């Protein structure tokens, strides 16, 4: 009876630790975009994160493999399982696990596999007290070893579950995709505009949405919904027969991603905002980034309009074998912005159209990069039949995309929130925006990620650029801080003006505690990495 009770307590403790471990694994699998290869590499890349988990597993195995009574073994392993529960307890996350339908299906499959494992352990346990064992165990500790190994390899269970569910997920995604295509076909006369680029696509989408509303009933993909399932969800949940234009943001991490999106929505017109060293860990080369972004151009119909950022050297280098419009600042684009005046209160500029028509605009948004993005949106809207003059009021209404140089005031402190926009071009634009403000300029950043072999060098350059603008720099993450700090020191930036924090919360607490001799604090929040970094 005592052995049965101890076994039950161990099984209950294992169950709690295993479930908590699975929820944690599902969280990071979701952050890694449900990709098997990405998550598999992430597990080994973050081996130190699982060190307590692995140590506990080894200690349990050592405890049960020594030759002493099963009762004593169960007494030793129980507190270790309880420690495992403590280690696996839910931790505060920047972006918590979202219990989507897919996550719920994975939890059900995990439960089935868990029940199968527990049944095996139970049958083995029962067999220990039978003269004719059901499973002929080689050792009386067999059941306990199974429990320990199930916990030890629990971080890989999510990958097994993903493989088991893969046929079902493909079938479900296909059903949703076909339904989205049916809805699109039913919207007679709907014009689809695809917007892609290494950076700037979300801002252009938001600006274009505002400008086109001067004449049309418009739907855009919300927030950063730029994956196939995000686009499909928008169509199935929000697209109505009354909509005249659908603006579809198209994101990509792999060659073929834009083509896949185009095969769903079949865009009539397209905008390519930029091409740069973004997601190089998956793309591997800038040439593959170019190829992927121009999959949008390749998908357009013969009479579809293509709009290109004429100031982007990579777009110019790639070239295009179909007609297109360019938009630039001060260059020779079809739509050109000139007379740009930028301050911390807003921006004014003049746009010249291909027919020579000119119009001057004012916006509360700051930064030359915003002028370029707005000019691109003006170009599209104008070619969609809205006169330049009719866009003046709409430009004044423009608001920045959330967390992309979003301005706010808090307790007498100016905050420039650029948390969703850290890339080589974006960091330059953000520092330029910060330089416009009077006050004590503070940068808070973990740096840039997913830049492949160039990541260290680009972060070092980021540090060099920051040294020329910032009065104080707070770096987030000991590992991430190294190349940025090297760039700061290369420009003789004083050590006393730098601080390395472990978390964004610690960084902000340090910033708010700083004394600035009466100067107003202006804080630039440049990037905020999710929990899987």
Task: Describe what you observe in this structure.
- The chain has helices at about 1-30, 35-45, 50-65, 70-90, 100-130, 140-150, 155-185, 200-210, 230-240, 255-265, 280-285, 285-295, 295-300, 315-320, 370-385, 390-395, 425-435, 455-465, 480-490, 505-515; strands spanning about 190-195, 220, 245-250, 270, 305-310, 325-330, 335-345, 345-350, 360-365, 405-410, 415-420, 440-445, 470-475, 500, 520-525.
- Strands 2-3-1-4-5-6-7-8-9 form a nine-stranded mixed beta sheet, sandwiched between helices. Strands 10-11-15-12-13-14 form a six-stranded mixed beta sheet, with helices on both faces.
- α9 (about 230-240) links the parallel β2 and β3.
- The longest helix is centred in the N-terminal third of the chain and has 33 residues, at about 155-185.
- The model is unreliable at about 130-140 (pLDDT under 50).
- The chain has three domains: about 1-165, no CATH class; about 185-395, Mur-like, catalytic domain (UDP-N-acetylmuramoyl-L-alanine:D-glutamate ligase), CATH 3.40.1190; about 405-525, Mur ligase, C-terminal domain (Protein-Tyrosine Phosphatase, Chain A), CATH 3.90.190.
- The relative contact order is 0.08.
- With about 525 residues, the protein is an alpha/beta fold.
- It has 20 helices and 15 strands.
Briefly summarize what is shown.
This protein is α/β, with parallel strands linked by helices. It has 20 helices and 15 strands. The chain folds into 3 domains: 166 residues, no CATH class; 211 residues, Mur-like, catalytic domain (UDP-N-acetylmuramoyl-L-alanine:D-glutamate ligase, 3-Layer(aba) Sandwich), CATH 3.40.1190; 121 residues, Alpha-Beta Complex (Protein-Tyrosine Phosphatase, Chain A).
């Amino acid at each position: 009876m005592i052995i049965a009770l101890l076994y039950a307590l161990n099984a209950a403790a294992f169950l709690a630790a295993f479930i908590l471990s699975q929820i944690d694994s599902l969280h990071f699998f979701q952050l890694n975009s449900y990709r098997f290869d990405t998550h598999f590499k992430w597990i080994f890349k973050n081996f130190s994160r699982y060190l307590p988990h692995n140590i506990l597993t080894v200690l349990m195995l050592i405890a049960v493999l020594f030759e002493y009574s099963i009762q004593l073994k169960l007494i030793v392993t129980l507190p270790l399982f309880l420690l495992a529960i403590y280690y696996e307890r839910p931790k505060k996350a920047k972006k918590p696990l979202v219990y989507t339908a897919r996550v719920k299906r994975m939890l059900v499959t995990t439960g089935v596999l868990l029940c199968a494992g527990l049944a095996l352990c139970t049958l083995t346990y029962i067999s220990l007290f039978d003269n004719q064992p059901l499973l002929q165990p080689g050792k009386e500790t067999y059941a306990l070893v199974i429990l320990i190994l199930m916990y030890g390899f629990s971080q890989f269970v999510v990958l097994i579950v993903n493989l088991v569910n893969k046929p079902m997920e493909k079938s479900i995604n296909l059903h949703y995709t076909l339904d989205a295509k049916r809805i699109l076909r039913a919207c007679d006369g709907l014009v689809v505009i695809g917007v892609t680029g290494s950076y700037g696509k979300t801002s252009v989408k938001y600006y274009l949405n505002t400008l086109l509303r001067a004449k049309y009933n418009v739907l855009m993909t919300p927030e950063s919904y730029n994956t196939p399932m995000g686009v499909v969800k928008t169509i199935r949940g929000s697209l109505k027969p009354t909509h005249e234009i659908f603006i579809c943001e198209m994101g990509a991490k792999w060659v073929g991603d834009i083509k896949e999106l185009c095969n769903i929505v079949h865009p009539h017109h397209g905008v390519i905002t930029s091409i740069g060293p973004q997601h190089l860990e998956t793309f591997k080369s800038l040439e593959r980034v170019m190829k992927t972004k121009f999959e949008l151009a390749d998908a357009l119909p013969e009479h579809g309009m293509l709009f290109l950022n004429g100031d982007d050297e990579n777009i110019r280098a790639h070239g295009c074998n179909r007609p297109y419009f360019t938009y630039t600042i001060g260059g020779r684009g079809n739509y050109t912005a000139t007379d740009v005046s930028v301050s911390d209160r807003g921006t004014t500029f003049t746009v010249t159209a291909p027919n020579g028509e000119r119009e001057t605009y004012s916006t509360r948004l700051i930064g030359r990069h915003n002028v370029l993005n707005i000019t691109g949106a003006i170009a599209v809207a104008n070619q969609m039949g809205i006169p330049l003059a009719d866009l003046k009021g709409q430009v004044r209404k423009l608001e920045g995309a959330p967390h992309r140089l979003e301005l706010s005031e808090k307790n007498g402190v100016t905050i420039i929130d650029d948390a969703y926009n850290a890339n080589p071009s974006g960091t330059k634009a953000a520092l330029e925006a910060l330089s416009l403000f009077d006050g004590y300029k503070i940068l808070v950043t973990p740096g840039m990620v997913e830049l492949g072999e160039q990541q260290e060098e680009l972060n070092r350059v980021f540090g060099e650029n920051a040294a020329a603008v910032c009065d104080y720099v707070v770096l987030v993450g000991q590992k991430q801080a190294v190349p940025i700090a090297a760039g700061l020191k290369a420009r003789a930036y004083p050590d006393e003006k730098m601080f390395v924090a472990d978390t964004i919360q610690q960084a902000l607490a340090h910033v708010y505690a700083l004394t600035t001799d009466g100067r107003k604090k202006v804080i630039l929040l440049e990037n905020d990495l999710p929990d899987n970094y």
